[in-house]
Amino acid sequence: MKVIKKSEQVQNIIKKLKQQKKSIGFVPTMGALHQGHISLIRRARKENDIVAVSIFVNPAQFGPNEDLKKYPRPFEKDVGICKSEGVDVIFAPSPKEMYPENYLTYITVEKLSDIMCGKFRHGHFRGVATIVAKLFNIVQPDRAYFGLKDFQQSVIVKKMVTDLNFPVKIISSPIVREKDGLALSSRNVYLSFTERKNALSLSRSLQTAKNLIKYKNIKSAEKIISEMRKIISPKVDKIDYIDIHDAETLEEIKYIKKKVVIAVAVIVGKTRLIDNIIVKR
Ligand code: PAF
How many Å apart are CA 153 and CA 159, to the nearest integer? Predict the structure, then answer.
């Protein structure tokens, strides 16, 4: 396994692999790898000749008061995980490598970036779209793998790939959860014992919402959101949003008719957590 810090070096290696007609599977990450990332790496391993993983805590997707500085960076541990999962190439650039002085070019996927998490994290998805586009240009993957915990992110990346004609297939993989329902996240390490227990209200509320739609035939988004709020509200410090959107277009909906994503974002202690569930009627 190669660990590479320079974009040009990755591009040269990929060029040779492409000449040999090798397919490239790519898992972009910010490190602090957990079972969610591992499930993406395993899928990429199954479906491609070569697996590349990027480890880069992307400053452009963090707001000024967010956790960029304290975001976990267990680099050696991540390298060990990649090695044992059969990754071929790790791309781990420095911030300067990705955003050299006088860097000026950003990508915005309009509309989709301003709703849900975008309302509360201004500029976040601009940072995500920009780094993902840059990584795609460097790694030139045939397939790229994203976890559905960041549902909005995967819709935005798909839209960017379509709109900008990137020759890459975006593959979204299901959320990986702890046995008790907590969605895996690199940020879960911030949670105290009590905060972690309170965070379970997210998955519980999503499961309740699903049951209301599937088994109680409730169609009103307002009613479902209000039931979810009753579960979450006593357990968290702040609710950023509880939203129901069309799972394809992310259009906010009032009545559930087809496939929807029910998404929540909250603050528990000082930690921002998101979770979601996809429900088909
Ligand atoms: O999902 C993440 O970890 C990040 O947003 C990504 C896609 C690696 C871009 O920095």
Answer: 10
